[in-house]
Amino acid sequence: MALAKTEARERARALRRAGRTYDEIAAELGVSKSSVSLWVRDLPRPATPPDRLRRMREARWAPHRRERAIRRHQTKLAAANEIGRMTDRELFLAGVGLYWAEGSKSKPHRTREEVVFVNSDPTMIQVYLAWLSLLGIVRERWQFRLMIHESADAESAKRFWAVLVGVDASSFERTTLKKHNPRTSRKNVGDEYRGCLVVRVRDGADLYRRIEGWWYGIVVGAKRQPERVSGLV
Q1: Residues in a beta bridge with 144
Q2: What domain of life does the UniProt record list for this protein's source (predicted)?
Q3: Helices (H), strands (E): how many in the chain?
Q4: Among 20, 35, 96, 134, which residue has the least CB neighbours within 10 Å?
């Protein structure tokens, strides 16, 4: 019996040095937790293994993350309900702002009056195309092209965008591949990375001039507002 206790004691001390808890040691050796405490209490408290630290942190913060995710979802849902059904004029103004923020623009040093919209966000593309339809720009004038990193699955991405915009992938113009720079650390990787979709309107010079004028009208109109509308924020 004494020999068995001596062996158990030495084994308990070895397990403690390896970072095991009192409960784990007691369970493995089939002894009481008080015996384990008596045998190893002179040993320094071992550092907590990284995987256990991770589990502890997860157990501690998971409820807070869930609560935060619920609050975030509730806030977004409430905000979405504030928009409600958009009028044609509201979509028109939203589209002008969207294009002027994300679309190509003519520069004093580079006059190029063309309507080209590039984005990686499918929802932005959907709103933009709804805006073009509102303007009466027929689908026959829409041209699509994929811009994507050369290491990505370009064909899969092209199929995704084709389904989104409701055309056959074969109608896309030649894909533009971005060369890999080994000095950069890319974040846009994985299955969700589908590059950017380029949407060009054929013969869009006149439309571009109108967009530029519409944006100028918004700027002038905003300057004339006597006070901020209450209740929006």
Answers
A1: 199
A2: Bacteria
A3: 8, 4
A4: 134
Question: How does pLDDT run across 206-231, given as a tens digit for each residue?
Answer: 999 999 999 999 999 988 766 655 55
**Rounded to whole angstroms, how far apart are CA atoms 166 and 210?**
27
DSSP 145: E
pTM for this one? 0.70
Of 110, 100, 131, 103, the closest CA to residue 198 belongs to: 103
- CA pseudo-torsion sign 69, 70, 71, 74: positive
pLDDT value at residue 1: 43
Return the axis-axis angle of helices 122-134 and 88-102, rounded to nearest 10°: 120
Between β-strands 142-149 and 115-119, what pairing exists: parallel, antiparallel or unpaired?
unpaired
Kindly provide the residue ranges of all beta strands, DSSP E only, lying in the chain, ordered along the sequence. Answer: 115-119, 142-149, 176-178, 196-201
Sequence-ordered list of residues with C-beta below 8 angstroms from that of 190, at least 6 positions apart, any chain = none
Q: Where are the domains of the chain?
A: 2-40, 88-181+189-223
Residue 223 CB neighbour total at 10 angstroms:
7
Q: Give the amino acid at 199.
A: V
Q: Is 79 helix (H, G, I), strand (E, B) or coil?
A: helix
**pLDDT digits 0-9 by tens, 84-106:** 999 999 999 999 999 999 999 99
